[in-house]
Amino acid sequence: MNVLKVETVNNENSQDKIRQGGNFGYLFIGLLMTFLAIPLSNLVPGIGRYSMTLLFTLFMLVAVWSLSASRHIFYLGAMLALAIFIISGISIFGGPGQTLDTAGLLLFLIFNSLSSWIAARNVFVLHRVDLNSLIGAFCVYLLLGLIWATLYRLLHLWGWATFTGTLADQGPQVFSDLVYFSFVTLASLGYGDIAPVGGLVRTLAFLEAVIGQFYLAVLVASLVSAFTTQRRQDRNAS
Length: 238
Description:
CATH topology: Helix Hairpins
Shape: globular
Number of helices: 8
Largest sheet: 2 strands, antiparallel
Oligomer: single chain
Distance between the termini: 22 Å
């Protein structure tokens, strides 16, 4: 009976840790749906990008709910999602504008940053080596690429950033190309088909490349440290 009680307590503690650490599977699915939806939005004239924005907001709202143990953070995510929904609706019926696009991108940036902060905190604070943590670490990497793509789009929208190469002229295609450029830069691939022009956007580009490499180094070091600590605790327990 005592053994059963100990096992029950351990299972409950494990479930509590997973609940506190978050289930990164929802976030990962939301990100995959986003990356699949961005290119498809270019094929739908008119409301394509707005419908994809709403789809992304829905998935990310579910992701924030699944990751956060705090009601305050969930309410903040819900308010951001509602604001993005309202801005998208106004843009659909009232026509796009620079001010609305800027507001939507800023909310989009805050939303991604919030999700990235929640995921990074759970991955690097709890220090567990399991599949859920690995998926969470990968989600943080993907969110970094989206955050930088949004920054590039904001600068490009206001004429503070110029790119040479195969960058499209229209809004939805521009963001899709900037997402591609962001991840190429984050991974330090440097294909060169799209290149930044100007001091500010070049600074952002090399900062993204540095952060991408630094993140991978810190991630590997954190996983090795967590694995070593876990092995040491298992040996001491046995």
